[in-house]
Design a protein that fits this description.
This protein is of the alpha+beta class. The protein has one domain. It contains one helix and three strands; from the N terminus they run E-E-E-H. A three-stranded antiparallel beta sheet has the order 1-2-3, covered by helices on one side. The protein is elongated. The protein starts with 21 loop residues before the first strand and ends with a helix.
């Protein structure tokens, strides 16, 4: 009677454990992302502030470094 229909794109192993880091510009410059904290059972936000760097070009370089390193670390677990 019940069909074994499976939704498109779903799997038991498709649990989202993090979001990719993103640069936010405006009044405050920062890079943020969320990562799953198993102790609390929820996603926690991590934020790297870039306001202390005076030059905009240096802020962009530092943000790129943070994003690439953080993305690698998140993908590796």
């Amino acid at each position: 009677m019940f069909s074994e229909r499976k939704r498109k794109g779903t799997s038991l192993y498709d649990v989202v454990t993090y979001t990719l880091p993103k640069l936010h510009t405006g009044k405050n410059w920062y890079v943020d992302f969320k990562c799953y904290d198993p102790l609390e059972g929820s996603m926690k936000r991590k934020k790297f502030m870039l306001d202390s760097i005076a030059k905009i070009s240096e802020r962009k370089k530092r943000a790129t470094e943070i994003i690439t390193v953080t993305t690698q670390r998140l993908r590796n677990g």
